[in-house]
Task: structure prediction
Amino acid sequence: MPRIAIVTDSSACLPTELAERYNVRIVPLSLLFDGTVFRDGELSQDEFYARLRDPEQRATTAAPAPGEFLEAFRAARAAGASAVLCLTLSSRYSGTHSSAINAADLAVRELPGFEVRVIDTGGIAMAHGLAVLDAAKGAAAGGSLDETAATACRAAAGANLVGVLKTTRYLARSGRVPWIVHFVTSLLRIKPIIAASAGKTRAVGRVRTMTKGMERMIDFVRRNTASDRPLRVAVMHADASGQAQVLAERVRDTLAPAELLITEFTGVMAVHTGPGFLGLAWQAPEPARFPEGVAMRRTSLLARDVVTLGAALGELPPPAEDPPLIVLSGLPGSGKSHLAREIARRYPIAVLESDALRKALVERPSYSQRESARLFAVCHALLERLLLRRIPVLFDATNLKEIHRRPLYDIAERTGARLLVIEVRAAEDLVRRRMESRLAAGNPLDRSDATLEVYEMMRREAEPIEEPHIVVDSATGDVGGAMERILLELERARA
Result:
């Protein structure tokens, strides 16, 4: 077995022989038919499709529990692996990535010295599976954890998917599209063409026959591949092996791929597409690489930094069903950290205070641009990781420009967190008095090293907040009504 074990989920739809050849451990998602739970792959294909076609049976899917991933990590270690690289489908489509992250956190305590790294490939089906296969091949060739992770990231960045739905009935049944859409497409005998890339799915066309759909998919791949280099292509199907063979022959004749696979959807994918689905996953040539070793060093440093700052947070609040992400914005001396402490005193939330975390990351901060870029990359990665675990998070930093706030908005969107932006203000003369007093008294609760010169520079650079937000004037001391409004918003998030 390779030193680096590869673990993934069953949505990757890997051909069985390849999963076995490269020792890929697959954690199955769950299928629910009218409340009866089956592990993906537990039902025979005939029984699965019989249940799926039965209009009286409601079919849904569920992510694996963290314990199932943890069991795969344990098994990998018992088999002699030195570390695990766990690759999951996009967190935009499933809670599987969050479950794997939770399992990795459990592994830190249960499997000391055994590193588990979890990566969201951003893909589904074989767009996800191609990245898994590349990682598995890299591990089999003796690659280190950093090298194998970098291989997976490059592969995931170049993987795409396009498919034709024979019917929208199953998307409607699973709640992915309104029933009216299914009614209209059925009435007009329309078969939608969908494409998925980087965690986003969109409609790219429609046809009336599957034959025409095959032509359109091949043309879509050709038009969206900016290279003459041969591609790796996977033909995917849901209970349509005959048409999949026809599609494979057409792909071979027109695209001349360097590698061509045919694979059948697992149940968790077919539940949403229904029988008859045909699709292509393909991998474009690798994006330009960093100079030798640089990508691996960056990946490794970020991972270590996340662990360091995660430990600095201490005990975390319990997970919430609908966790908020609170983003504070304000100049030095405006009262952000005082407000953060007040919120944390009255609401269970993890506070990421940039000034304190900088000093946990760097023994003697220089406040250089390079150091700040490193700090905020780690903070963003850490708060996203916490939100995927459903931990409420408050990020206390100046966040004075939209270019600094935009990544936080994106994290909230990716994780499904409720975003609450709070701008903290104070009159300039009050800020000056606070900063002078702070520098003289050395308040241990105040970790900022900002001077009046820094304040003046930041004041000139601050930009208006474009997102809806709450404004708090800290000059009132206890922030009065604004605090009540904040707590009301948090209770709504909790409800």
Notes: Residues 4-29+64-157 form a domain with the Rossmann fold fold (CATH 3.40.50.10440).
